[in-house]
Amino acid sequence: MLCAGKKSYFAAAVCVITVTSMLTVSYLRLQRLSHQPKVIQEGRRCRGKIANSSITALKGNKTFIISPYFDDRESKVTRLIGIVHHEDVKQLYCWFCCQPNGKIYVSKAKIDVHSDRFGFPYGAADIVCLEPENCDPNHVSIHQSPHGNIDQLPRFEIKNRKAETFSVDFTVCISAMFGNYNNVLQFIQSMEMYKILGVQKVVIYKNNCSHLMEKVLKFYIEEGTVEIIPWPINSHLKVSSKWHFMQDGTHIGYYGQITALNDCIYRNMERSKFVVLNDADEIILPLKHPDWKTMMNSLQEQNPGTSVFLFENHIFPETVSTRMFNISSWNTVPGVNILQHVYREPDRKDVINPRKMIVDPRKVIQTSVHSVLRAYGNSANVPMDVALIYHCRKALQRDLPRESLIRDTTLWRYNSSLIMNVNKVLSQTILQAQK
């Protein structure tokens, strides 16, 4: 025996540690070997139907694939963003077809269900597969078994295969638009504020919205600002409009918001310098800088090695308004006029304000809604005197008298540009239709 003849406790401890280390190394080596791609077929053409849906159900309806992405930050892998049942999905395999040699490789997937599942049976998951060393596959198929016919499996295009130069500085990710969304005026105001602050692209995961909202989205799509990702998650799962599980038979929280946010980060990893994760009724307002670019330059300078910047949320109740900026032509448009809401709720004792983020997408591995779960680099809380989130919505502190609210007119610094830009959009969408 390896430990025979050792009589002192110290020697025994060293012996146990040595054996444990050897077993651990052996186990990890075996685990890695079990995930190595293996050739199962040769000399054939790559077939199988290309999956074009933004959510694709695999056989059995316990696994849903959003999109695969090439990720070589640690090793050469395909990372699929998906949704899985956290208990029932234990084994998945990636099938890679390599041209021109026609070899088909199968690689056992590591299934990493995100920790922020909030009690729901289904959650966001990374399905990660090692790629073949001598092949850069353009497509991947997913199956519950390492055996079968690849022609019968949907094929998914692997995005981010080629590194690109950034086409934009800031991309806003909004997930998810649902509930027949019709807050048209506030949406237009948010979009125009984003553009004033330096945003070039807004990605919206759209479940549904009103007919009027569709017209506005069409305008922004044609303008080149908005990209719509169809998000028919309720066709596959029972969705909740709440973020935590209520024992009501629903499968996933808040229309799969966390999955959409993770997909949006990877989707924009190679094309946007920064990705902004917030809702359509939230605007990160800089207090010391005129726009986001100068703000982020300053924040990065002050926080070297930081890849995630978190901004504090502050509620501006839509029930408390001012008579300023009561623009008559806007009164026929459904939604909130944010220029009339400049009173914010004070901080509550023992209640932490949630935060939203501006991130370097190349440094994020997994994100939740109010913080990242895994990332390279540090996270930094941005002080409130530098920037805050203007969040105009229903009051959280409903019983507060008006005199207890804090008047904050930071938004008015942008009023002339905002009014002009909103009028331009309305004249080409809503008001034009009303004539």
What does this molecule look like?
With 435 residues, this protein is an alpha+beta fold. The chain has 2 domains: 41-157, Immunoglobulin-like (Sandwich), CATH 2.60.40; 168-430, Spore Coat Polysaccharide Biosynthesis Protein SpsA, Chain A (Alpha-Beta Complex), CATH 3.90.550. 22% of the residues lie in helices and 29% in strands. It has 7 helices and 23 strands. The strands form 5 sheets. Strands 11, 12, 13, 14, 15, 16, 18, 21 and 22 form a 9-stranded mixed beta sheet that branches. α3 links the parallel β12 and β13. α2 (184-197) packs across α6. It starts with 8 loop residues before the first helix and ends with a helix.
The second-level CATH architecture of the largest domain is Alpha-Beta Complex
How far is the N terminus from the C terminus?
Answer: 92 Å
What is the strand content?
25-35%
CATH topology of the largest domain: Spore Coat Polysaccharide Biosynthesis Protein SpsA, Chain A
Total domain units: 2
- Largest sheet composition: 9 strands, mixed
CATH class of the largest domain: Alpha Beta
Structural class by SSE content:
alpha+beta
Question: What is the element string, with H for helices and E for strands?
Answer: HEEEEEEEEEEEHEHEHEEHEEEEEEEEHH
The tally of strands reads 23
CA-based shape: globular
Low-confidence stretches: 1-6, 24-33
Question: What is the number of helical segments per DSSP (H or I, 4+ residues)?
Answer: 7
Relative helix content: 10-25%
Over the alpha carbons, how many angstroms does the gyration radius reach? 25 Å
Mean model confidence by pLDDT: 90
